[in-house]
């Protein structure tokens, strides 16, 4: 009995040693030296082939008319909108005179907004034209054929029974490594050595974090990578944006103070590098943030500042108002968008860890400088337009703060003033013309 126990213990020790060697050789060392062994590329290619096969199965199993109806619903939304501007539609109805029928224009726009407005849907997950074999997507079509159902079940077993445990273990290891390493490096005196060690720790941990998600990131135009003392702005989809950028270059972050798991990571990073954190509700913090940013960029030796001007997470279909890098996630492999008003951080982390992978393209865009006769608003709009054009996204004039707050009275007044100006310019008020 004792000999059997000893043999069993030796066998377990050998298995554990093999796993440790594989972890160090295939995960840890490549992350330290930031090299790719091609495993993620190979895995993503297999997933792509599987999704292409699943799409063919769905097309064969679903009637063509239903497929076209589904595609139209996803691509155009719930309703078909008339994009005619107010000036043309209102003036065209009664040739410039005031009419009670003008009320119908505003009623129609109100009904469209209630059914589906162009802002709220940016804060929900992006719709897919084809099913990606994830049960949480809306096009749940595993019943089309038994072959597709078998692949779907197999995918669940792989993601939840094989990938999820490995990803959780690697995530815990990455967070512990970050906490312990920043605690040690934080005790070093300020200087070049501490700065270099801090950068290495954060980049290694960020690279490990991407490997937790079977991440595949393509960086484009690295010659435009931000330099010390500069400001980098990017569209914002989720906390993964920071993780992805930090794997290629260290930044000083400007962002909201978080609690829980994100709070632990923020505090760890603050031990070794300077970041600007604030409370969204505190007006005093806003003035302090501006002051800290100006002081930071005045020192050309400091890390570039990374800002997400939208102020909230958008679902990677549009770019909202800026208060230059550009992200584009591939939604086929998993949903990178974090709907913070609906899901907690832990729920979001679980959804990401049980996705196929996170595939992302990052473009470093050429630096942009404010022109002499250009104010801050027009400069921000110009930068936003460049980012949206590069990522193929829509440009929306709305403030991302609408995710948590009601529409400002100034927006309503703007529409009222526009209609009033139409009536006045056509002389219907002074002449007493009413249709």
Instruction: Figure out the total of helices.
Output: 14
First CA to last CA: what distance? 102 Å
Spatial extent as radius of gyration: 26 Å
Beta fraction: 5-15%
Question: What is the count of β-strands?
Answer: 9
Order of helices and strands: HHHHHHHEEHEHEHEEEHEHEHH
Largest sheet: 4 strands, parallel
Mean pLDDT: 76
Overall geometric form: globular
Unreliable runs: 320-325
Strand order of the largest sheet: 2-5-3-4
Helix/strand-derived category reads alpha/beta
Percent of residues in helices comes to: 40-55%
What's a quick, concise take on this entry?
This protein has helices spanning 2-33, 39-61, 64-76, 86-94, 102-115, 146-185, 192-212, 240-246, 260-270, 283-298, 345-353, 376-391, 409-425, 428-431, and strands at 216-220, 231-233, 252-256, 276-278, 305-307, 318-319, 325-329, 359-364, 394-395.
Chain-wise SSE layout:
Layout: H1 2-33, H2 39-61, H3 64-76, H4 86-94, H5 102-115, H6 146-185, H7 192-212, E1 216-220, E2 231-233, H8 240-246, E3 252-256, H9 260-270, E4 276-278, H10 283-298, E5 305-307, E6 318-319, E7 325-329, H11 345-353, E8 359-364, H12 376-391, E9 394-395, H13 409-425, H14 428-431
Parallel strand pairs: 1-8, 2-5, 3-4, 3-5, 6-9
Antiparallel strand pairs: 7-8
Helix pairs in contact: 1-7, 6-7, 6-9, 7-8
Give short descriptive properties of this protein.
8% strand; 4-stranded parallel β-sheet; single chain; alpha/beta; 3-stranded mixed β-sheet; globular; 435 residues
């Amino acid at each position: 009995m004792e000999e059997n126990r000893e043999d069993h213990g030796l066998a377990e020790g050998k298995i554990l040693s093999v796993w440790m060697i594989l972890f160090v050789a295939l995960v840890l060392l490549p992350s330290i030296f930031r090299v790719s062994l091609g495993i993620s590329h190979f895995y993503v290619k297999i997933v792509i082939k599987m999704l292409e096969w699943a799409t063919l199965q769905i097309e064969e199993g679903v009637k063509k008319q239903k497929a076209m109806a589904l595609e139209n619903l996803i691509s155009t939304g719930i309703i078909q909108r008339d994009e005619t501007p107010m000036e043309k539609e209102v003036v065209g109805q009664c040739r410039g005179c005031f009419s009670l029928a003008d009320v119908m224009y505003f009623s129609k726009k109100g009904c469209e907004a209630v059914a589906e407005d162009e802002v709220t849907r940016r804060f929900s997950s992006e719709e897919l034209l084809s099913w990606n074999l994830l049960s949480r997507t809306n096009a749940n079509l595993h019943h089309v054929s038994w072959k597709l159902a078998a692949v779907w079940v197999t995918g669940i077993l792989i993601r939840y029974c094989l990938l999820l445990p490995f990803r959780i273990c690697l995530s815990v290891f990455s967070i512990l490594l970050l906490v312990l390493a920043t605690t040690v490096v934080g005790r070093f005196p300020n200087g070049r050595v501490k700065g270099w060690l801090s950068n290495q720790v954060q980049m290694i941990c960020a690279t490990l974090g991407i490997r937790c998600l079977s991440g595949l990131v393509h960086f484009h135009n690295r010659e435009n990578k931000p330099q010390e003392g500069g400001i980098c702005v990017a569209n914002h989809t989720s906390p993964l944006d920071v993780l992805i950028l930090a794997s290629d270059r260290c930044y000083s972050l400007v962002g909201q103070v978080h609690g829980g798991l994100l709070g632990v990571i923020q505090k760890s990073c603050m031990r070794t590098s300077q970041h600007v954190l604030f409370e969204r509700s505190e007006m005093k913090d806003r003035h302090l943030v501006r002051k800290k940013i100006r002081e930071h960029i005045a020192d050309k030796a400091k890390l570039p500042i990374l800002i997400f001007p939208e102020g909230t997470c958008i679902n990677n279909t549009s770019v909202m108002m800026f208060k230059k890098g550009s992200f584009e996630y591939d939604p086929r492999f998993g949903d990178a968008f974090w709907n913070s008003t609906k899901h907690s951080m832990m729920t979001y982390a679980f959804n990401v860890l049980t996705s196929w992978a996170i595939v992302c393209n990052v473009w470093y865009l050429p630096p942009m400088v404010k022109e002499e006769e250009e104010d801050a608003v027009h400069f921000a709009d110009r930068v936003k337009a460049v980012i949206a054009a590069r990522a193929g996204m829509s440009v929306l004039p709305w403030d991302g703060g609408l995710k948590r707050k009601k529409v400002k009275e100034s927006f309503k007044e703007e529409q009222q003033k526009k209609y009033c100006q139409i009536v006045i310019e056509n002389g219907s008020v002074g002449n007493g013309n009413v249709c």
